[in-house]
Amino acid sequence: MASHIVGYPRMGPKRELKFALESFWDGKSSAEDLQKVAADLRSSIWKQMADAGIKYIPSNTFSYYDQVLDTTAMLGAVPSRYGWTGGEVGLDTYFSMARGNASVPAMEMTKWFDTNYHFIVPELGPDTKFTYSSHKAVSEFKEAKALGIDTIPVLIGPVSYLLLSKPAKGVEKSFSLLSLLGNVLAVYKEVIAELKASGASWIQFDEPTLVLDLDSHQLQSFTEAYAELESALAGLNVLIESYFADVPAATYKTITALNCISGFGFDLVRGTKTLDLIKSGFPSGKYLFAGVVDGRNIWANDLASSLSTLKGLEDIVGKELLVVSTSCSLMHTAVDLINETKLDSEIKSWLAFAAQKVVEVNALAKALAGAKDEDFFSANAAAQASRKSSPRVTNEEVQKAAAALKGSDHRRATNVSARLDVQQKKLNLPILPTTTIGSFPQTMDLRRVRREYKANKISEEEYVNAIKEEINKVVKLQEELDIDVLVHGEPERNDMVEYFGEQLSGFAFTVNGWVQSYGSRCVKPPIIYGDVSRPKAMTVFWSSMAQSMTSRPMKGMLTGPVTILNWSFVRNDQPRSETCYQIALAIKNEVEDLEAAGIQVIQIDEAALREGLPLRKSEQAYYLDWAVHSFRITNCGVKDTTQIHTHMCYSNFNDIIHSIINMDADVITIENSRSDEKLLSVFREGVKYGAGIGPGVYDIHSPRIPSTEEIADRINKMLAVLETNILWVNPDCGLKTRKYAEVKPALTNMVAAAKLLRKELASAK
User: Fold this and answer.
1) In which residues is Zn(2+) 2 bound (predicted)?
2) Residue 57's beta-bridge partner residues?
3) Does position 348 have pLDDT exceeding 80, yes or no?
4) Annotation-wise, does 439 bind a ligand?
5) Rounded CA gap, 8 and 45, in Å?
6) Contact 68, 77 (CB under 8 A)
7) Which of 50, 151, 321, 327 could form an S-S bond across to 267 if both were Cys, CB 3.0 to 4.6 Å?
8) Pairing mode, strands 601-605 and 555-559
9) Is residue 183 part of an annotated ligand binding site?
């Protein structure tokens, strides 16, 4: 019985790639140094899977930024502004597309389906010239082969690539990206030919858009694409992999009818309805790559349950054609549980990170083949029973409080326009008020202080004094810049979700449980293992301290319940909505304590609200109902004079704008500039927004510093579709990943742009 892994984490067990990338970007190391780190990581990953007994090992899943950008490089689809003149796409061009450079902005970045991973959105048009311009897939296949490891090269499928793209600037929005399919396939044929010549026997095409609600034209494109590739693929085994949700019935029928495809990979964790489709009919003689081991979470697989599922599939597909697999790439989970030496032993026994999931996949494959490891299965069964019966998982008081929430919609009593009038009288802000999103640069010294405090190398008093000094520096800087509503910079926080999770019951934390979000950015999601409550105040001390340093309004900074949920590894033994309501109650307590402490502006970030939206339209209304309700619960009890902000970033918000309005926040700051001001189109189309809104005026994920004129131009575009009295001026997102040398001039220009337009508006009256 064979085993397969869809993909594997790239950063390394101790974030080796992150540090190598940042060293290269800072000019402290060479391209050769970066490539050496990458090669060592790839070698280690392939050997680990081979040693674990995995038969179908993926290659070309490693990336310096993301796999869609890799495909853009492969196709030579480099936007003209980057000055690329042909040949192999080099690292300078590659990273300019991802991060921008001193003269041109980066390409748009957005969420990879419903995950916290991001990808760089391709910009295409009728004039895009596609040429084979990155041989990465072939070189990595050869690299593994030189180590004696035969791999399956993985390519983003041609149809999904086009469906994930957008029309380039200046191209009509109605332009059909799928009209480029023939041109794209010409390059794919070259790649396939080179892989075949290099000795590849399998190729994996990741076509994740198969789980979306596709129209008949989009579905037909899959048929046309793989019919066109059929002769090129002759002599190869071909796997089409999908993940993250059920495959719709019509899609299932279309793809399983494709002639040149040898096997189909399905997510059977989040795609349980796909299991019913397989049971109702699966093509004879084709491989089924059954994704029964969860690639999105960190809970140990219920091996007995998975084995039962696999045995049922074996009767349908046949023993030799069933392959045990992960539900998706393991890049969405942490690397290796062996590195967690401080994790509670009971909770640790309930978990499996990527390395452990590889072992689970192979254990299931061996069990199906008649070589079941009884000790391994027995230990797994004991851990499953321990988790179900552990008293630390359940808090009846919390469950009762959450259940009682369902009788109300928890709206504030006064409508938002009336609240804004009352708040303005108290805050007395100018038109086009300026603010930032929350975090300021996280310096090496700051990280050292937090690290030493956690290691008990400095006292609490020393830690508090160091953080106080940093807050004071950030407050003074904002006053010097003449920003209107201040933040304390979040120097006490390494991560916005981890910080709150550490202070809430029902959460556990790792030391090395890092997961890539984009580029070199890694997050360490907390683990929600039980019912959630707030034992004590979490932010009041720091927010009150910061407010005492200035007469200007100081925002209290919180992470919202939906974002805490979506950016955590969430318990899978109760509905996500139940866990979210519990978190909402905890945040509600914190909001009310901040208000009681005199904080007049409170920001409750919901950066991940859109991220959690189900991929299938039929499931979206239910999610938005409980997610938006959870946000309203957090602030339903505050006074009209308390201004509630929220923040969202790096997703497509236009399709949920009415749900955003339904959140009933007083002010929303929202990413806008990185996505080429796509957000503004929803207002041009007639959507009325009556609350305060701050579409981001510059991209903080690029080191590029925008000019005053550029920012003013962006604000003018906003003023064309939004009322002057509701518009705020702010960056796209928090500033923690930037350096002060970038932040100071960018914010200086932002404030100057706001003042310039205030003068122009005043003189126009």
Assistant:
1) 658
2) 151
3) yes
4) yes
5) 8
6) no
7) 327
8) parallel
9) no
Q: What is the mean pLDDT of the chain?
A: 95
Check whether 647 is labelled as a binding-site residue: yes
pLDDT of residue 264: 98
Taking the CA atoms of 69, 75, 79 and 80 in sequence, report the sign of the dihedral they define. Answer: positive
Residues recognised as catalytic: 701
- 333: alpha, beta or left? (left if phi > 0; alpha if psi -120 to 50): beta
Residue that has been written with the tokens 């069964």 in this structure: 381
Confidence band (pLDDT; 50, 70, 90) for 95?
Answer: very high
The most distant pair of C-alpha atoms in the chain lies apart, rounded to whole Å, by 83
Q: What is the DSSP string of 577-601?
A: HHHHHHHHHHHHHHHHHHHHTT--E
Is pLDDT at 45 greater than 70 in this prediction?
Answer: yes
Q: How confident is the model over 682-716, as pLDDT tens digits?
A: 777 777 888 999 999 998 888 889 999 999 999 99
| 580 annotated as belonging to a binding site for a ligand | no
Q: What is the average per-residue pLDDT within 174-190? A: 98
- Count CB atoms within 10 A of the CB of residue 311: 12
CA 384 to chain centre: 29
Alpha helices per DSSP H over 414-495: 416-427, 444-454, 460-481
Question: In angstroms, how far is CA 618 from the centroid of its own chain?
Answer: 22
pTM for the predicted model, two decimal places: 0.93
> Residue 256 has which token pair?
């399983």
350 is in an annotated binding site: no
Residue of 533, 520, 489 whose CA lies nearest to 399 = 533
| DSSP code string of 301-324 | P-HHHHHHHHHHHHHHH-GGGEEE
- In the DSSP assignment, the letter for residue 475 is H
